[in-house]
Amino acid sequence: MELANTALVNNAGSASPGSVESAAQMMVLKKAINLQTQGVMDLLGSLPPQPALASSGHLGTQLNTYA
């Protein structure tokens, strides 16, 4: 997965350190990364839970495999 936008990352690193422009670009970059993080967490949260191992019997008590 790409980190925000390549242009956004390049712009954030090109401004002179300590300037208002640099601070604004870093804030935009952080917001973009936070949005991507939230999107990934939403996707992971929508996954169904894995089935539990069988509790008795000869099959399915040691290894949980399914297609």
From TrEMBL:
Polar residues bias: start-end ranges: 7-19
Pfam families per record: YjfB_motility (PF14070)
Residue ranges, annotated region (Disordered): 1-20
Protein name (database record): Motility protein
